[in-house]
């Protein structure tokens, strides 16, 4: 049984500061296992205690993992100087201190974006050595060509000389300008630059999966959902 101070427990799992937690407790707005608690130095079992702050349960899981269906016009950054940040789309009940996008989607791109406060998992997703696949649907300016399969598989050479890791691409059924692309790295504007290198241009890009986590059809553009432990195993495996 691991014991932890109540104020630390809440602070690590929410956006509340220690001083805010102290104020809430003094007003009887924090309960542990159904009983109001007014002292923040109370030690609780971080795996068993039921903590409620202002009517909202505080989950025992230390880190938070959120899947966002990113809309166009938002930047994949904690900095909103270049436009509204994707963090603005995270609802209050899912927010914690230290949330950040694990990976990037261009401002005009859409689809699956993982937001978390778990730096270790984010590093795994971003590292080419981890070979975490990301799958995209792209709309091309020119017709898809069958030669792309071999070119992408052998490693596209970008215009700056960088040689991409082997990738997979295939045509979309019933459309000559839509394609699926799977890569396992994430260089700046990589998918767009790969198609530029073969004489085509990406007009629209949507990421539909990260690792084995697939963007659900029911998750509307701009909406978030919290991932479960079984979802995270798809990324770790």
What does this structure look like?
The structure is a single chain. With 237 residues, the protein is an alpha+beta fold. It folds into 3 domains: 56 residues, Structural Genomics Hypothetical 15.5 Kd Protein In mrcA-pckA Intergenic Region, Chain A (Roll), CATH 3.10.290; 87 residues, Alpha-Beta Plaits (2-Layer Sandwich); 78 residues, Alpha-L RNA-binding motif (Alpha-Beta Plaits). The protein has 6 helices and 15 strands. The strands form 3 sheets. Strands 7, 8, 9, 10, 11, 12, 13, 14 and 15 form a 9-stranded mixed beta sheet that branches. A 4-stranded antiparallel beta sheet has the order 3-2-5-6. A hairpin with an 8-residue loop joins β8 and β9. It is elongated. The mean pLDDT is 89.
Keywords:
single chain; 237 residues; alpha+beta; Structural Genomics Hypothetical 15.5 Kd Protein In mrcA-pckA Intergenic Region, Chain A; Alpha-Beta Plaits; 3 domains; nine-stranded mixed β-sheet; four-stranded antiparallel β-sheet; 6 helices; 15 strands; elongated
